[in-house]
Amino acid sequence: MAEDKIVLKKTAPKAAVVKKTAARKEPKTAAPPAATAPAPSQRRAAETEDAGAPARVRTTRKRPMPANPAETKQQDDQQDLLRQLATVSDEQRLAMIREAAYYKAEKRQFAPGHEAEDWAAAEREIDELIARAKLMTGL
User: Fold this and answer.
1) Do the Cβ atoms of 67 and 118 come closer than 8 Å?
2) Residue 110: how many CB atoms within 10 A of its CB?
3) What top-level branch of life does the organism fall under (predicted)?
4) What does the domain layout of the chain look like in residue ranges?
């Protein structure tokens, strides 16, 4: 089966990889500080901290990331639209129903005889939309 294999492109053999082995180096130790002894008050504080008390681990609190200004603006815009929708006047509601009924009739290619059904369905949808906006905004 290996003989049936068709080679379309010849590739050059890969170059051998030479691994470099680094000599292990012993870690350097720091030289003790030269003749700088802590003050007596510091020495006492260090002795009392080490006297059987568990070491305190310093932790840092993660600060909440500031909100993305673009996202904040978008959320504000959405809240404004919901408030506007929740407080529509009767004339605006009627215009919304009229437009929705038009699009329903257009979807049916304006076939006659379904005008009342389109109007009722549009009215139901707009009223549900307004009710949801009122519920979401608490108005």
Assistant:
1) no
2) 11
3) Bacteria
4) 95-139
